[in-house]
Design brief:
By secondary structure, the chain is an alpha+beta fold. Helix content is 28%, strand content 24%.
């Protein structure tokens, strides 16, 4: 998705709760998102936007310790009817985000197209555990309709990320060179990792290594052990003779969480991650150093 000019997001709190039933719109767009917490499904039944054709996302976690959110992507001629069915036969989801049209111009073929494209994009990005068991084939649409649906898809991606679900957002490549958002290195005894601070967290890139030894004084050693086991089980990491090797990029919640896994002992990620010139993460992003994301 290409960068776009700034857009205004409008949120309407249907039940007055900031995390409740709500609609979300972008300026100058006929589409809209409707956010439906599972416990608000009954209240959504008579909402007009919930009784239209829509492409939708069921979002939750398969297990409490899952590394990625679980997402099911679907389409429906009547959104509420389909969600009501999923309420009976799918256990994992806590929230549904659906996209429909304010002008009632989305057809069954349109939402089928959007479902198929969303599945392709989400599977390529791999920012979630896609629950769909089968692929969705693209329906045949007139060329003008395809162009409209691709624009719809661009705005859909903006809103899903803005709502806190970067299902389609690509991880920044290690090869990207940006003086305002550089690579950082965390090195210790026999290990070295490369990463970058992003809006989503701290990325540790493929090819980085982490210590196989855990300090006896490590903070929350059991938590570290469980995370490493999950990273290995989900093929983000593999154990070699002298170190753990990241075989896929992984986004940690914080630089410190990443540094402690890399080094095997308590550490401040803001001090241990450094640029090639030796500037710490803290020094680089501190407001009084003259560095900023916009410089």
């Amino acid at each position: 998705m290409e960068s776009q000019r700034p857009k205004t997001i409008k949120i309407f709190l249907i039940d007055g709760e900031p995390d409740g039933l709500r609609t979300v719109e972008l300026s100058n767009w006929v589409g809209q998102a409707v956010v439906i917490p599972r416990n608000k499904l009954k209240e959504a039944k008579n909402r007009p936007e919930c009784n239209k054709p829509a492409v939708y996302f069921l979002i939750g976690k398969e297990t409490e310790e899952a590394l990625l959110p679980t997402v099911y992507i679907g389409e429906a001629e009547n959104l509420w009817n389909r969600l009501s069915t999923h309420d009976n036969n799918k256990d994992f989801w806590q929230i549904a985000i659906a996209f429909t049209s304010k002008d009632n111009n989305l057809t069954k073929a349109h939402v089928k197209y959007l479902e198929s494209r969303c599945l392709i994009l989400a599977n390529n990005v791999k920012r979630s555990d896609i629950k769909n068991e089968s692929e969705s084939s693209l329906p045949s649409l007139p060329e003008s309709d395809v162009a409209e649906m691709e624009e719809f898809l661009d705005n859909l991606q903006i809103l899903t990320s803005s709502l806190g679900y970067p299902i389609f957002q690509k991880i920044i490549s290690k090869e990207k060179r940006d003086s305002s958002n550089p690579l950082f290195i965390c090195a210790g005894k026999g290990v070295s990792a490369t990463g970058r601070l992003t809006n989503d967290g701290f990325i540790v890139y493929k090819g980085s290594t982490a210590s196989v030894e855990r300090s006896k004084t490590a903070i929350d050693r059991d938590s570290h052990k469980r995370l490493i086991e999950k990273l290995i089980d989900t093929k983000y990491m593999e154990q070699q003779k002298d170190a753990f090797l990241f075989i896929k990029d992984y986004i940690f919640n914080s630089p410190t969480a990443a540094a402690e896994i890399i080094l095997g002992h308590p550490a401040s990620g803001w001090e241990r991650w450094k640029t090639e010139k030796g500037q710490t993460l803290k020094e680089f992003y501190a407001p009084n150093t003259g560095n900023s994301l916009n410089k």
